[in-house]
Every structure is written in C-alpha cells, then in structure tokens.
Amino acid sequence: QVHLVQSGAEVKKPGASVKVACRAFGFSFTSDYMQWVRQAPGQGLEWMGLINPSGDGTAYAQKFQGRVSMTRDTSTVYMELSRLRSEDTAVYYCARITSAGPNDYWGQGTLVTVSS
Amino acid sequence: EVVLTQSPITLSLSPGERATLSCRASQSVNIKYLAWYQQKSGQPPRLLIYGASGRATGVPDRFSGGGSGTDFTLTITRLEPEDFAVYYCQHFGSSPPRYTFGQGTKLEIK
Asked: Average pLDDT of A35-44?
C-alpha cells in the first residue's frame, strides 16, 4: 500500500532553518517526481517546488528561490526552508507527481510553526 | 504564469442537490494539465479529477469534470454529507515546470 510518511511538527525561531522529511512506502519511489506544497492556517494550497527522480534536477516557485532546497535519497525526499519568518508558519505536504502530472498520493502534512 | 480563479468562494447547498464549481484560467490551458482536488479539514488534498474530466481511482461517479480553454467545471450530482469540503483546481505547466492552484471553493451544508 502506498504511503508517504512525513516527519513530525517543528517549532522554529525567525531566521532559523527547517528540514522536513517525507518517506515513501509501497511504490517505486526512485521513478517518481515529487513535490512540496504548503498551506498556511486557514489558507489555500501553495506550490513550492519539485524534484526529479534522480535528485539532480529541481524546480522551485519563484517566491521561494534562494530559500528552499529539495533533495532526496533512495526512500526519502527532503525540503529545507531557510531564513524562516512568521509567514512561513504552515502545514507542509509532500506529494507524488504522476506521469500525467497531478498528485495522487500525499503525505499527512507537517506543521511548521515560526515564532519568537 | 497561469492564474486560476475559482468561483464561488463559498457554495451553500443541501444534501441531494447538485453542485457546480467553476475554475477560470488566465490563459488557455491544455486540458491534460487541469486537475481537481477535495480537501477536508485536517487532511491532505485528495485527487478527484485529472485531465479535466478523468476520475481518479475510487472517486464516485457523482463527481465529473469538464471544460476547455479557460473555463472548467467540477460537478457533483446528488450531494452526499461527506462531499462538503473545500475544492481546489490545479494546473501544471512543463516549461518551466510549475504548478498553480486556485484559491478554493468551500462547499458547505445549507
């Protein structure tokens, strides 16, 4: 059964960095593009970026350029966001990108709270 | 960059009624790259529709998608209690690769 299991909630101070992990179970993870989407409290979905199957290619939303880094190994994809500010408080989701483009499997979400 | 505008922001209906949700793109898009998701409180989004009209695995046939060019719709016939949620449309482009979401439509019980 396909599962994406994300790391636990984080509380960070402004200016710090956070690294969220997303581990894949039940599918050939190494063949799939993966992406990250975030959702601020009470708000909509915001695309952050994606990483290719081999991990040597990424595409980031312009808003996060220079602050975000996505990496992966054989079973886990990571998203690191630096220079955190209060507006980065959100639930961060990883998701698998299907060959047709949309996202069929999602992680459970990781709440990142940025507060002094 | 494609901007997606959903309407209405909130839709109040009763179980058994028909819901029609709209997603308008700022420019004409390929229908292959338009999807719809359902999100319930505290849960990740769930893929409903891909390629504008294809139902994802396990999605009931009361959900249907349609449209072309800049105007797309998600229709739910005979609303069930579990259908009341927030719905998002999504577009993905390949050059450069990027995804955008509409702002969402909240479907609430009247």
From this structure: 97
